[in-house]
Amino acid sequence: GIYDPHLAQVSAHTVVRMVQLMSGLEKQDPDYDLKMGICLLILPDSIQFIKITTRRVAATNTIAPDSIAI
Questions:
Q1: 3-class DSSP state for residue 39?
Q2: CB 8 within 8 A of CB 58
C-alpha cells in the first residue's frame, strides 16, 4: 500500500528530543518536576503512536508473492 510516514517521523523526532531534554535536566532546576512531568505525560502517547503507525505500515506494505512477475 501507499503510506506517508511523515507523522510517525515527527513523533519519533519528538521522542528523541524529549529524551534529550529529560537527560539534560538538572535536579537543582526549580522547574525540574514540572518539565519532567510534562515529558513523562507526553512521551508514552508519542511512543504508542509510533508503534501503531509502524505496525499499520508493515501490515499494508506487503507484496503478495503471486503479484511479482519474474
A1: helix
A2: no
Among 8, 7, 10, 28, residue whose Cα is nearest residue 18:
10
Region label for 64, one of left (φ > 0), alpha (ψ between -120 and 50) or beta (otherwise)? beta
d(CA 53, CA 70): 31
Give dist(CA 38, CA 15) in Å, integer. Answer: 12
Arithmetic mean of pLDDT, 39-63: 84
Place of cell 506487503: 62
In the chain, domain spans? 6-61
Q: Is the pTM of this model over 0.70?
A: no
Sole residue written with cell 510534562? 38
